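Researcher: Let's try something more involved. This one mixes different molecule types, so please make sure each is placed in the same coordinate frame as the others.
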Amino acid sequence: EMQLVESGGGSVQPGGSLRLSCATSGFTFSSYGFNWVRQAPGMGLEWVSYISDGGGTMYYADSVKGRFTISRDNAKNSLYLQTNSLRAEDTAIYYCARDYTSGWYGGHYFDSWGQGTLVTVSS
Amino acid sequence: AIQLTQSPSSLSASVGDRVTITCRASQDISRALAWYQQKPGKAPRLLIYDASSLGSGVPSRFSGSGSGTDFTLTISSLQPEDFATYFCQHFNTYRGTFGGGTKVEIK
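Model: All components are placed in one shared frame. Result:
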């Protein structure tokens, strides 16, 4: 059974840091790109970051560029998001999502998701 | 950056109704669009990708159509388990984006 399990969330003061993790199982982790997507309380979905299967390509939303770093460890089947200089507006549930590309139109989609980990930034 | 505008933001419908949700892109995105369903307290679920391809295990009452800038998600006969929020999504070369969401509520 395929599983994605996030961890590492918690409460932190503005300016603080957290390292989010996503442990996976049930599929060949190294064959897939991954994304982080977040959702502020009561709000919609916001894409945060993408990393390719080999880890050589990374993209970020403008709202987190320069503060967040996505990485992966294919030997540990795990995805990470280092979040620095956190702000109140970063408060959200953070989901890891497996990337799926059909190949026909160049689209990237998110075909499997974890349950999310909550990050709360408050003084 | 490409923006996705969904309408309506919410709707009320009854079991058995046909429901249509639209998503408009700020520029031509061919057919590179997906739809997701999210229930309260749960992660989103991929329903449709490439505008009209059904996701794994998704019931056939869900369908998608459109290309270019205008897209539609249709639920042919609304079931009790379909009351949820629906999001459209696109990922171009460098970033992803979601529509604002459409909440489908019980009439």
